[in-house]
Amino acid sequence: MSLVVENGHKECVNGHKVYVNGKNATNGSHVNGVNGEVPWEKQFLPPALDIDDRARALAVESRLSSLVLCGATLQKVGEVFTREIENGLSKRPSSLQMENTYIPELPDGTEEGVFLALDLGGTNFRVLFLELRGGQLVREDVKHYHISDALRLGTGEELFNFLADCVLDFLRSEDMVDRELSLGFTFSFPMKQHSISSGELITWTKSFKCSGMDGVDVAALLQRCLWDRGLKITVQVLLNDTTGTLVAGAHMDPDVAVGVILGTGSNGCYMERADRVKHWESAHEKVHDVCVDIEWGAFGDNGCLSFLRTEFDNEVDGSSLLAASFTFEKYIGGKYLGELLCAVLRGLAKDGLFPAEPIKGELLSVHVSMFEEDNVSGEWQRTADVLCAACAGAKISRTDALVAQHAARLISNRAAQLVSVCIATILKRMDRAHASVAVDGSVFKKHPRLRHLMDKYIALLAPHHKFTLLAAEDGSGKGSALTAAIAARVAARKS
Ligand code: BGC
Question: Which of 7, 20, 6 is nearest to 68 (CA)?
Fold first, then answer.
């Protein structure tokens, strides 16, 4: 449905009701709830574009209406997500990996020992030395290493040899080259895990695309590269950054049962009943719950979410490193939000609604956050300066800057809604009296509105489930060491 209404706001493009200023646009009847409350459906609406030129405002809103999702559409996304979860857990075809991480319990405050942790997922690789005493982190030494484009796009062998060289360099600087240490490897890509310490890469995501990794166990490859350098390091756990975030979060708050990353990429994990998980490669009779890595970045890759996809998403996907893959991540991940904003402004420019087409690659997700910040504080000059630079010096007026801020708002609002659908669905599935959700990632930390929007939308979508969003710190470092300690505890209990 596409309906433009005078002096109002079109709500939904997916065949649902259209509400304008409290009236049903198709028949004019009032839709406000009892006692003047804003009805449920209307609470998903972003505010209308507030510029003096009403004709331009309406034209821009009409052009961008496909980015506005109504409550009914979000409910439908939730239903599809639930179905895909069930399929994934049962090993039926699904766009969700629902990977068993083999982590059967969370920190209990007894974690002890010294650990190395490796964190690979973005353009920086981190090596950490961590010491836990009575569950508390008492020492953390860290070194960052840049991963060049050549390494991210070269062969897997070269990449993993580089990682092992970094570990050697780190141990030399810590004067620990001969030390025997357990290592937790946070590998923030989808994996098929065979155990808590082994797993194969399924596909690269974000800005990695190394060759020769099909069917390769990434923990075993790392282990070999470390041994080749004479290091006495044992890869004890292989985990995803969401899992590390959940574990690190549970260390702060025992109600944490969900881990979420909203950074360059996006993903979630949660504690699932072990009997609902069909992929096990080891005995698990005594396991009650197990952490499942959802890999929601790939949600919809089988076409089940095609009703959401806009022309702007097609443009972002088409020019991405891994086209037609991880389509959901391209709606919410920091790697893509800037490109999405660029695609939207290019679309508006083609229709004469924006003065120039921004150059591809010039707008980043930090700019989406910046435009949102300016919008919150009623500023426009900084937005205009960024746009002028991104549009090769084109003149950008205050109204143009407000139009771009509106586009950033729609993109942010949709991202918040989609991630909220996933979290709300998980909360309903776990059905706990209260659950905390540990969240990490640059987009969550830096975007001025995202957290507030997520609080609002999760509450609207799962109204009977109490929850708290908890900003988690360093799941890939601390979470990795805690997971290694948990693995050691579980192994000791078994033997
Ligand atoms: C990866 C996930 C990861 C997420 C956040 C995605 O691209 O597939 O495994 O958790 O990024 O880093």
Answer: 20
Ligand 1 proximal residues by C-beta, below 6 Å: 121, 188-190, 205-206, 240-242, 261, 263, 265-267, 295, 297, 329
> Could you say which of 119, 217, 241, 317 is catalytic?
241
- Alpha-carbon 287 to chain mean position: 28
Please report, in tens digits, the pLDDT of each residue of the chain (495 residues total). 333 333 333 334 433 333 333 333 333 333 345 567 899 999 999 999 999 999 999 999 999 999 999 999 999 999 999 999 999 999 999 999 999 999 999 999 999 999 999 999 987 899 999 999 988 899 999 999 999 999 999 999 999 999 999 999 999 999 999 999 999 999 999 999 999 999 999 999 999 999 999 999 999 999 999 999 999 999 999 999 999 999 999 999 999 999 999 999 999 999 999 999 999 998 888 889 999 999 999 999 999 999 999 999 999 999 999 999 999 999 999 999 999 999 999 999 999 999 999 999 999 999 999 999 999 999 999 999 999 999 999 999 999 999 999 999 999 999 999 999 999 999 999 999 999 999 999 999 999 999 999 999 999 999 999 999 999 988 888 999 999 999 999 888 887
β-bridge partners, 266: 262
Helix (H) or strand (E) holding 234: strand 233-239
Name the CA dihedral angle for 443, 444, 446, 448, rounded to a multiple of 10 degrees. Answer: 120
Specify the pTM: 0.92
Query: How remote is the CA of residue 147 from the centroid of ligand 1, in Å?
Result: 17
Residues 6+ apart with CB under 8 A from 303: none
**Counting atoms of ligand 1 from 1, which one is nearest the CA of 329?**
7
